[in-house]
Amino acid sequence: MDEEYDVIVLGTGLTECILSGLLSVEGKKVLHMDRNEYYGGEGASLNITQLYQKFKPGQEIPEKLKGHDREFNVDLIPKFAMASGEFVKILIYTDVTRYTEFKQIAGSYFYYKGDIAKVPVTEKEVVLTSLIGMAEKLRLKSFFEFIQNYDENKPETHQGLDLNTVTMKAVYEKFELEPATMEFLGHALALQLDNSYLDRPAMETYNKIMLYMLSMSKYGKSPYLYPLYGLDELPQGFARLSAIYGGTYMLNKKVDEIVYENGKVIGVKSGDEIAKCKKVICDSSYAKDKVNKVGQVVRAIVIMEHPIANTDNADSVQVIIPQNQVNRKNDIYIASVSSNHNVCPKGFYVAIVSTIVETSEPEKELEPGMKLLGEIVDKFVYVSDIYAPANDGTSDNLFISKSNDATSHFETVCDDVKDLYKRVVGKELTMEGKVVRGDEN
């Protein structure tokens, strides 16, 4: 490791692999290292034997699951991609889509008064949903018409609401929407993480709702996509991209120390070797003295033999349980996939229930989601700490990614990628057209 690199990336989580690929494409000399022998970091995908070894060492694997090791590829942290979202734009821009095949998630649901229902987006769905009365349906229809017709440059479409200045709360009040309707609009469509969005300018939520609608219009059943064979296909895709453009990968490589000189990163030490570099990008596990713990996520990986009830036997769904429906400060997320996504044997389903920890009994906090799953074969419950960088990295050239949150979609991951890219490169990430592959020049 005598060469000097522009950037050394530590950890093969998705955020790190995306940045490694993007920087390699831009001509940066990149060395990518991971202490693990597999891709994905804390977001890896595991087979049944690995799941039991990790979460229930010594416990006998149930008979019905034995012999299916190769058919299980279970994500530790599931994420769905919005069809028109930032993550898909990154995939198209980098051409990583050539390495990974995606399949649509069959349904997008939300929880209301102890039951779940499809998120109504189209006029037909609004009319058919049983969750709201006729008067509220008319108000919701008017709201959607306003959203779809709104043009920033045409005041006549504003109905007296400039979305750059009025709050989202004021917009809801204008259409006299009920609290439950506001909940699914804010949390199931706009994917807001909490209710603080109500007091921010409405343009933010408008853009998020429009993204959901645009993604829905692409395929019809839901706005979400998921890669066949699980999420660990994605870091590997970006690793291939990096390699094509000259990036060097070292898995199963010990990382002993990030080396500094005069308060700035100058390299990474592994055994007796030091790889020199100008900047380091890493996940929080490689720089524990430079991060702050900001919370915890509790997740339950659940194996079932049936689809989630009241989803029209969907082979895959996302369910969002809005915080207020279960007297919480944070939403609960359920992501469920099946053999149709090549992540488990035929006749099995995998669901992951997750939320931000609020009490001293994290597993209990998942109960509203677990109740929706019905009978299960087995479950694996674990709590992960959430870390955020203590500083932005520009003073010492160490740039740290955020830990994965409880959400079951990629939107927050993409926010972190774009934020890190800007701090590392000094400019916004723009994705115009498609990159030219190194082997096609």
TrEMBL record:
Domain of life: Eukaryota
Pfam families: GDI (PF00996)
InterPro entries: FAD/NAD-bd_sf (IPR036188), GDP_dissociation_inhibitor (IPR018203), RabGDI (IPR000806)
GO CC terms of this entry: cytoplasm
GO biological process, one term: small GTPase-mediated signal transduction
GO molecular function: Rab GDP-dissociation inhibitor activity
Transmembrane segments: none
Family: Belongs to the Rab GDI family.
Name this protein carries in UniProt: Rab GDP dissociation inhibitor
Higher taxonomy: Eukaryota, Fungi, Fungi incertae sedis, Chytridiomycota, Chytridiomycota incertae sedis
